[in-house]
Design brief:
- The protein is mainly beta and 267 residues long.
- The protein is built from 3 helices and 15 strands.
- Helices cover 7% and strands 46% of the residues.
- A hairpin with a 2-residue loop joins strand 11 (200-212) and strand 12.
Amino acid sequence: MRGGGAFHPSFIDRFHAPPMNERLRTIGITATALLAAVGPAACGSGQSTTGLPQNGEPAQLDPSEFTTEIDNPYWPMSPGSRWVYEETEDGGPPLRVVVTVTDRTKTVANGVEAVVVHDVVSEGGEPIEVTDDWYAQDAAGNIWYLGEDTAELRNGKVTTRSGSFEAGVDGAEAGIAMPADPEPGLAYRQEYYAGEAEDKAVVLSVDEQVEVPAGHWEGALMTKDLVPLEPKVSEHKFYAEGVGPVLTLKVSGGSGREELVSYHPGG
């Protein structure tokens, strides 16, 4: 399964990346900084010391503290916002990924009202995966990921909905899509549905330069995303202020990249 969304937490990217030590030199991360970022805070199984959820711990969410007006600077989601990405992996055919913030909302099982973000992955002009992802922002400015309704397609017919989950249903828990105050070393889970979706992330840097077809940005946020259900897989994601996700590089478990081709702000 591809994972259901261009940049939602369970995405397994398709990239071509240089060796890790070369990449770290390129982006200016020292070995000491990297070890600090992926140390006990990122990998421990205890309760959160940051207020952000870790692993499978329950998230006690007060629906009155959430809004569908998402203005976190690293990932603003005004209705009508549209991101177009090109995704490649291991020499395979390029995929086109279109992500659109709709004007629809959904109240998930845990009572939080979320924005519906629609994601379509196409190969050769034919949709191969269609997903609705659900996001909401808390009073502190954290963007929460509350689940997804995803379907893989073949010849226009649904082949599987594996990976779909909803916070508050069957033990599934909400996670963090973007922290309110990211800083190097900050770790958090992105989603949790035991055996299906257990992704987590750690902030590596907030001062990166990144260039993709859509533009060049400085002061970009960079995270390392981990997939415990596929322990050999990890990726680096870059977010530009005022835009959102702009680049993802797979750094282990294969090769590939997904880069922003165009962005249209909503509102």
